[in-house]
Amino acid sequence: MIPLPLARIAEITSGALTGMADPRAVVRGPVVIDSRAAVPGSLFVAFKGDRADGHDFAAQAVEAGAVAVLAERPVEAPAVIVGDTMAALAALATAVCAELTGSTVIGVTGSAGKTTTKDLLARLTARIGPTIAPVGSFNNEIGHPLTVLKADETTRYQVLELSARGVGHIAELARIAPPKIGVVLNVGTAHLGVFGGREAIAQAKGELVEALPADGVAVLNADDPLVAAMAERTAARVTWYGRAASAAVRAEGVTVDDRGRASFTLRTPSGAAPVSLRLYGEHAVENALAAAAAAYELGLPVATIAEELSEAEPRSRWRMEVSDRADGVTVINDAYNANPDSMRAAFGALDALAGARRRFAVVASLQELGEESDALNEGVGRLAGGAGLTGLVVVGDGAGPILAGARAAGAVPGVLGGGEASAPRDGARTVVACVPDAGAAAAALEAALAPGDVVLVKGPRVAGLERVAEALLGGDRR
C-alpha cells in the first residue's frame, strides 16, 4: 500500500478520527480484516460478521502494531469512524488505485477457471514487472479492494479476479480498479439459480469488457458463443483465444499424458512454441490460453510464455491437487467448489489419470442451481454412474437427485468396503453409497481402497469435502 496519513484516510472514507488517533500517523500497510494478521504499520478494518464482530478485536490489532482501526463505532483504539466499513474499504482502494498511474490493471472473470488463470497470468506478468494478485479466490467486495490495497508505487501489474453473484457486481468491482485488459473465460452454470439463467450470467460477466477504455484490450474465448458475443459490448480492441482456427492465440495438437496433464503447441501471430502443462486436466488448456493471450498483448515473447506455462505448478489450494500416498493411492482434491461444468472437467481428468486403475469418487449436491437444481444434480449422478467407478460416495443432504441419476446410469446401492466394491471389470456396476458427512465418507473410502486406486474428491465449497482428501492423505494439506 502507498503510505497514507490517517487524516488522508479519513478524508477518503468520509470518516472521523477518534480523539486518540493521531492524524499524522502513517499507515503503510497491509490493510487486514483479521486482527491476527495485524503488523506494525497496518490498518485493521473491523467488519461485523455472523460469528464475530471485528470491533471486539480492535485493541488486539493495535497491540500487534496496527496504526488504527477502520470502524463503524468507537472502539478502545485509535480509529477512523465511518458509516459503512465495506463502502469505506472500497473508497480507500479506489483512491489508492487512482494514484498508481504506472500500474496496469488486468481483470479476469468467468464461470470457471478464474483462479487458475489468474495464477498463471500473475506468473507471466511477474517476468516483466512487479505484480500483485489475490491469494486464492479473493475476488468479491471485500477481497477485491484488499488485493488492490497491496499495490504500491513499485507495482507494475495488478492481476485481479472478479466474481459476481448478480448483475452489477463486476461493474462495481471494476470501478474500484479500472481494468486496461479484461479476460473473459466462459459462461457456464455456476450460480445459475442466483442469476436465473445463462443469459443473465453473460450479462454480468460482460460488465468487465464494458468497463474497458477505448485503448484497452478485451481477451475473449472464441470457443464460447456467449463470451464471443461480448465483443459487441466494448469499445476496446478485441483479441481471441481458444482452440478454434480463427483464434489469434490458440492450442494445436493437444495431447494428454497418463497423469492427465496436457501438452500442445501454443500458436500466436508471431510464432509458436511447445507447452507441457504441469496442471492436471485437459480443461487447464483453456486457462493457459487465456493467460497466454493477455501476456502476449503485454509484449511477452511466445517462447517465454510457453516456458512459464510449462513450469507453472498449481498455486491455489483444493483445485486439482493430485497427491500420491505411499501405497500408490492417488487422491485428486478438487474440492474448492463445483458446478455442472467443472464436474464434467473433473471426471474427464479422473478418466485420463486413472487409466486402468480402480477409480472412486466423492461428491455432494451442487448448490445455487435454482429451478434446474434437481435435473442438473441428476445429471451429475448420471455422469458419475457412467464414469467406470468402482465406488461412488455421495455426501450430505440433497443427495436424492444424484443417487437417482447414478442408479439410472447403472450404479447399484451398497456399502463400500469388505469386498462390496469390486473392481469394475466384466461389466461390474458402480456401488453407490450415501453418507452424512466428510468424516463418514473418508471412513467408507478407507475401508474400500486398495493400493493403486484413484479417488476424485469434488463438491461445492459448503460441503467441506477437502476434509475427505486431507483424511485420506493422513492430514496432508498440500
From TrEMBL:
GO terms for molecular function: ATP binding; UDP-N-acetylmuramoyl-tripeptide-D-alanyl-D-alanine ligase activity. ATP binds at residues 110-116. Pfam families: Mur_ligase (PF01225), Mur_ligase_C (PF02875), Mur_ligase_M (PF08245). It catalyses: D-alanyl-D-alanine + UDP-N-acetyl-alpha-D-muramoyl-L-alanyl-gamma-D-glutamyl-meso-2,6-diaminopimelate + ATP = UDP-N-acetyl-alpha-D-muramoyl-L-alanyl-gamma-D-glutamyl-meso-2,6-diaminopimeloyl-D-alanyl-D-alanine + ADP + phosphate + H(+). Residues 319-459 form the Mur ligase C-terminal domain. Its main location: cytoplasm. GO terms for cellular component: cytoplasm. One of its GO terms (biological process) is regulation of cell shape. Keywords: ATP-binding, Cell cycle, Cell division, Cell shape, Cell wall biogenesis/degradation, Cytoplasm, Ligase, Nucleotide-binding, Peptidoglycan synthesis. Residues 108-295 form the Mur ligase central domain. It is found in: Cytoplasm. Residues 31-81 form the Mur ligase N-terminal catalytic domain. It is an enzyme of class 6 (ligase). Its EC number is 6.3.2.10. Pathway: Cell wall biogenesis; peptidoglycan biosynthesis. Belongs to the MurCDEF family. MurF subfamily. Involved in cell wall formation. Catalyzes the final step in the synthesis of UDP-N-acetylmuramoyl-pentapeptide, the precursor of murein. This is UDP-N-acetylmuramoyl-tripeptide--D-alanyl-D-alanine ligase. It comes from Planomonospora venezuelensis.
